[in-house]
Amino acid sequence: MNTTTTLRQAEEQIVENFSLFDDWESKYEYLIDLGKKLKPLEDQYKLEENIIKGCQSTVWLVSWFENGKVIFKADSDAVIVKGLVSMLIEVLSNRTPQEILDAKMDFIKEIGMMSHLAQTRSNGLLAMIKQMKNYALAYKAAN
Amino acid sequence: MDTVAIPDITNYDVQAIRSFFPVLKRAVHNRPLIYFDNAATSQKPQEVIDALSNYYENYNANIHRGIHTLAEEATGAYEDTRKTVQQFINAATTEEIIFTRGTTESINLVAYTWGRKNIAAGDEIIISEMEHHSNIVPWQILCEEKNAVLKVIPVSDAGEVSLNDFQNLLSTKTKLVSIVHASNSLGTINPVEEIIRLAHTQGAVVLIDGAQSAVHLDIDVQKMDCDFFAFSGHKVYGPTGIGILYGKKHLLEKMPVFMGGGEMIKEVTFEKTTFNELPYKYEAGTPNIADTIALHTALQFLKKTGRKKIREHEKQLVAHATSSLLKMDGLKIIGTSQNKVSLVSFVIDGIHPQDIGVLLDNQGIAVRTGHHCTQPLMKRYNIPGTVRASFGMYNTLEEVDQLIIALQKAIKMLR
After folding, report:
1. Residue B206 and residue B184: Cα distance in Å, rounded?
2. N or C: which end of chain A has fewer CB within 10 A?
3. CA trace torsion B254, B260, B261, B267 (10° rounding)
């Protein structure tokens, strides 16, 4: 959640980080590491209403609107999914609703794990992005 | 129209068996595919794939009413499958074999026809805690509609139901017992013959969900004395989209029809329609002809390969997997009955099953992770799901060893 980087810069940074690894093990180890480092969501937010439907693991997502920007916090009980969540927060949190709505999320393709991550809905990646964009849309409409 | 020769494998040569399954030659993430998701669906031998294209290439026609040669050939092949299925489960007549889309549709057919006619307010239906959602939801819908009561036999820590618990629930109010023959999440084989015998003493009808058992166990519906038996073609090395409902003739005759349309009628006027005889009365519309015909080939393949030999081979795979898995730190097997079909479900301390599944897939190993459509059962064990490795006739002991190595690697990455 670096306030000085743009959304695109955050994406590029992730792509660059992944480019350091050339085999699937290292890429996944990095993703697992991201998951482990993500600050756990406080128990008070781990409510049924914050669970994203369509994921095999449980993913909680909360958001609020602050100074014209959307802040996301999320967590999961599966660590690889938590790594994905961590990247989505890095890219989409602390952005304006319009930035979030415009985000093409190209970095997912660019990190070279597309075949692993996006082809199955069970990891909930697409459901998470959709939900984050829904929040952005709601904040945009309300403000 | 069975023009494809099915090889006779006299000794159990797993490599020879593998050679009949084209998909086993492929790689996944640059590793040779190890397919351990057979409880979800089995792979298809070339003979089955050929039977499908042979039908479309040579005698595609709508069945039963055409007078031309192609229609006769297609009808003959389609009805041959009914005969083969009758023999496969030892039904008394082919009239007791209804073609459906799969186990789920078979169970729903009973719920919507027999159930609607025979279940009244205050009646009780007994299922077990290990049922697949397909054997829970149709009965919940029926109970809600009829104000009937759904009762659930509990499952023990080992993953078994006790006959005592069953008898405690059973009474003259019980109109139906619908229970799984072999659990898709635990592997447990239930004592269905005893359950059926007890249920019948109270006048209840019994449906057996054979989705997991038909491929592994010898099924004799007359000896078992079940009233209904449901299973799917795609889990017995046949195509998807074809399932079976067996029902005792006297029950099927009295049940109302399921869907209305062509094929299931005798005579239609705008005032009144009379229905066709068994089994056609439950088969409205043009059926799934190609897949039904290819199911015949799949059942022949199973028979020729030798069901007893396959079962012995699969027992070896389960025993080897179980003993190897139990050596792993923090691993717990869910479903420890001595009497299981060929699958092993497990959890690992502090690791989500999905993470294991993703890292195994990257090593070319297909397992199933999650709740396996048995959410109440997962709740009973207080787990989000399991990792399930389920074996088929073509799996090898070496593949099980590969699973253990891949699992060790996954755990190392995740811890």
Report:
1. 19
2. C
3. 50
Pair of tokens at residue B40? 């979800």
* For residue B2, pLDDT beyond 50: no
Lowest mean pLDDT among A95-104, A118-127, B220-229, B269-278: A118-127
**Domains of chain A in sequence order:** 7-43+51-142 (3.90.1010.10)
Ordered domains of chain B (ranges, CATH): 14-43+306-414 (3.90.1150.10), 52-303 (3.40.640.10)
Q: Which of A21, A22, A25 to mutate to test the interface with B (most CBs of B within 10 A)?
A: A25
| DSSP H helical ranges for chain A | 7-19, 24-37, 79-92, 97-102, 107-110, 114-117, 125-142
| pTM, rounded to two decimals | 0.93
Angle between helices B353-361 and A24-37 (to 10 degrees): 160
Residue with token string 């787990």: B383
Cβ <8 Å between B352 and A57: yes
Strand B174-180 and strand B205-209: the pairing is parallel
Please give the C-alpha separations between residue B171 and each of A26, B200, B224, B362, in angstroms, as whole numbers: 60, 10, 21, 51
Each residue's pLDDT tens digit, B115-163:
999 999 999 999 999 999 999 999 999 999 999 999 999 999 999 999 9
A120/B contact by beta carbon, under 8 A:
no
Q: Which of B354, B359, B362 sits opposite A81 (nearest CB)?
A: B354
pLDDT tier at B7, thresholds 50, 70, 90? low
Please answer yes or no on whether B354 and A32 come within 8 Å at the CB atom: no
Average the pLDDT over each of A116-120, B54-58, B263-267 and give the range with the smallest value.
A116-120
Quick: pLDDT tens for A37-79.
999 999 999 999 999 876 778 899 999 999 999 999 999 999 9
